[in-house]
Specification:
Shape: globular
CATH superfamily of the largest domain: Vaccinia Virus protein VP39
Radius of gyration: 24 Å
Number of domains: 4
Length: 452
């Protein structure tokens, strides 16, 4: 086991170094390092577990390490501290890894970084941690105690407290720390859920689970990288969290319907709309040429031909939409708006340590300008969907209230797009709201609005 774990630890440290030094996303950093290392499936899973585990529990790990350092962790060089964190995570959170294996690996790494004296320091700290354990965690339900137990920065805990209240704070914070399931969306233009589940069961995954309330979704385990899946290459499915999948099912999609995805990104929700009804006409716009290129590649893989992609800024009033090949008005406008992204902390835990919420006011201003501009693109009787993958009140309920106050031509029209979805169970004050601790989904807020 120790020999197998060594490569996994090295890969985890390399990925974490990229995250720390280059502000890289953990998903991209780890994927790049795994591709270089070509580990076995078992070692790849361990590297992934260590990398994300360190990021999820970083402040709790640092608290434990600092307890056994006379001068605390602030004087420790970043690369040395990273090696200590990787070992400490294994000692504190992974029962299947022998403590001595984690310690020996970290000490060897520190010796290469700083010589025998520094290696002796690392050995002493980690041996004490393994022998005496983590210092006692604070008890009680105060925000400070919850923050320590679940490695949650104060600014995020305060935003959650504002939304859910003190009684639900701990379960909500714990949900944000949970490991998300791998959910995929079945491409109904190419296969059925039963047929895809049968194909995946032939050797691509350990297990599949059907979600009765979401007839287009499957939960997979043991898949590995989608890039190694032939059924993925054949366009039979797309990785997408259930909350994001719900956005594409909020409004019935009919033949000939004119739809605009105004911040399409790489096309996760855009392609879902096309899969629901291939006879709808969908325009997808985004500021990023790279994202538009990726969207077009995804459409090709999924066999979708009903989407026209354009590089465009939806907020600019001087642009000629007709000249750009777009419609002046649409039956449905989807604004999956740029946001703080706090609702997907389970997938991007590095965000906890590099942001402080100072970008939220700028996001709110951008969302407002997009809503104001796109409101003019909705036909009378048409719909505008506003969604964000975050839980901050300013970007969700407060943004909606401001929009309705300034646009009396719109009214809230609770979603009813798919009869298979139990929408009342997912709604809060008429809006779609999801939480990891409630339904295992990313934290989303979405409102379906109808132009009178």
């Amino acid at each position: 086991m120790a020999g197998q774990s060594l490569s996994a630890r090295v890969v985890a440290r390399r990925a974490l170094t990229r995250v720390e030094e280059s502000n890289a996303y953990a998903t991209l950093a780890l994927s790049a390092e795994l591709s270089r290392a070509r580990l076995s499936t078992v070692d790849s899973r361990l590297a992934t577990e260590i990398c994300y585990g360190v990021l999820r529990h970083r402040s709790r790990i640092d608290r434990a390490l600092g307890h056994y350092m006379h001068k605390g962790i602030r004087k420790v060089a970043p690369k040395v501290l990273l090696a200590l964190r990787v070992a400490a995570y294994q000692i504190l959170f992974l029962d299947r890894i022998p403590d001595h294996a984690a310690v020996d690996d970290a000490v060897g790494c520190v010796r290469r970084l700083g010589g025998p004296k520094l290696a002796g320091f690392a050995n002493g700290v980690l041996r004490k941690l393994g022998r005496e354990g983590e210092p006692a965690l604070p008890e009680g339900s105060s925000m400070e105690a919850v923050m320590v137990r679940h490695s949650m920065p104060a600014w995020i805990a305060e935003l959650l407290l504002e939304r859910v209240g003190e009684e639900r704070l701990e379960e909500c914070v714990a949900g944000m720390q949970s490991v998300p399931a791998l959910c995929v969306r079945v491409n109904r233009q190419r296969t059925t859920r039963d047929a895809l589940a049968a194909r995946l069961a032939e050797g691509e995954t350990r297990s599949t689970r059907e979600l009765s309330e979401y007839p287009w979704a499957l939960e997979l385990s043991g898949l590995g990288s989608p890039l190694h899946s032939q059924s993925f290459a054949d366009g039979m499915w797309t990785v997408q969290d259930l909350a994001a999948q719900c956005i594409g099912a909020m409004v019935p999609i009919s033949d000939g319907m004119q739809i605009l995805d105004a911040c399409a990104g790489v096309g996760g929700k855009t392609t879902h709309l096309a899969e629901v009804n291939s006879k709808a006409h969908i325009d997808a716009i985004d500021l990023s040429p790279k994202k538009i290129e990726l969207l077009q590649e995804t459409c090709k893989r999924l066999g979708i031909t009903s989407i026209r992609a354009r590089i465009m800024d939806a907020t600019r009033p001087d642009q000629d939409w007709t000249k750009a090949g777009l419609e002046p008005l649409y039956d449905l406008v989807l604004l999956d708006a740029p946001c703080s992204g706090l609702g997907v902390l389970r997938r991007h835990p590095e965000r906890k340590w590099r942001e402080s919420g100072t970008d939220i006011p700028a996001m709110v201003a951008l969302q407002k300008s997009l809503l104001d501009a796109l409101a003019k693109r909705v036909k009378p009787g048409g719909h505008l969907i506003y969604s964000v993958c975050t839980f901050s009140a300013a970007e969700g309920p407060e943004q909606l209230a401001d929009f309705l106050a300034n646009h009396p031509e719109f009214e809230l029209d609770p979603p009813k797009g798919s009869e298979d979805v139990d929408w009342p169970a997912l709604l809060e004050n008429g809006c779609f709201v999801s939480w990891p601790h409630q339904n295992g989904q990313d934290a989303f807020f979405a409102a379906c609005l109808r132009r009178r």
